[in-house]
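Review form for a predicted model. The reviewer records the input and the model, then writes brief findings.
Reviewer: anonymous (R2)
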Amino acid sequence: MRLSEAAEPIFARHETFHPRYGWFRKAYSTAALRQTGFTEDDAPINMGVGKNMVRAIKFWGQAAKVITKDPESENKRAPEMVPTWFGHSLFCEEGWDPYMEDPGTIWLLHWMLLAPPSLVPVWWLAFNELHAIDFDDATLEAAVHGHLNATSAWSNPHESSIRKDISALFRTYAPAVRSGRAGFDDLLDCPLRELGLITNSAATGNHRFALGPKPTLPNEIILFAVLDYLSRRPPSGQTITLAHLANEPGGPGRAFKLTENDLLHSLQRPAEATDDISLLSPTGAHQLSWTTEPALLAGEVLRRYYGSAPLNARAGSPGDEAVDRGNLPEERELVMTRLLDLRHELPIRAAQ
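Model under review:
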């Protein structure tokens, strides 16, 4: 998969804020309460944050595919926002994980940030096209510029935008670096840092991607990512090699930093428990086969993992679609209560 197929040419739309704990839920709750929730004059008061953070929460909600532009919005320059079916399935009151209590949800949101169409192309390039084992900011910046220059369909962004995206990437995933200027939230309040995908090299002090199995990454989330990946690429039969899933840019191996062998061990048990999915080795090469549409299987995997089945739940590429307005009113009273809880939310995990 190429960058132009996987991502949108969007840079530094996060107002220099990395995603904070609770922001994905708050993005869903704001859009579910009313479509104009992000554009009203009192949005900062209603959400309990500053104006720039309102825009950042909106961006990260869109990037994680939990909210999207309302297709019925009459304002094309500043369209109203509604939840996606994926966001609704995850965060509605009867959803898979409405309060983000399951560690697998953080891994799920990480995958959705990179899944096509990704709104963080710099991040997509870092996870999928950076081949350096040990790297610093300058190495990553040079690699990003090289790939962007080769993407003829895109205009080159300003260098400062690239640097802002790289800075947000490291503040999201890399271990916190304490300094006199680092705020409490910056050090403690980023859920994706818990994934341990980026570490620091003891020898050089540079960044390193953590390769190999991840103790907190559920096997079912890996299988979901495989099926979601299949649902977003052009159809090409009903089998795929694990080598492709591990090494192809845009695949789950690159996103989770897993090898082919890691995928084999991780997929065996959930594949056996899922109808219409099989792991085969007809010629010595390990393959995954399926007989049902991957998007439908992806939803089934999440329903089984979370142990719940929200009404009209959708995952895979159909999950990106906007929820019909008629499906939201019954949620709004519950959403208002949850927004009040979120307004003064503290970094819960940091305090534990």
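Findings: The chain has two domains: 3-211+320-351, 219-308.
Further findings: Residues 159-173 form the longest helix (15 residues).
Recommendation: see findings above.
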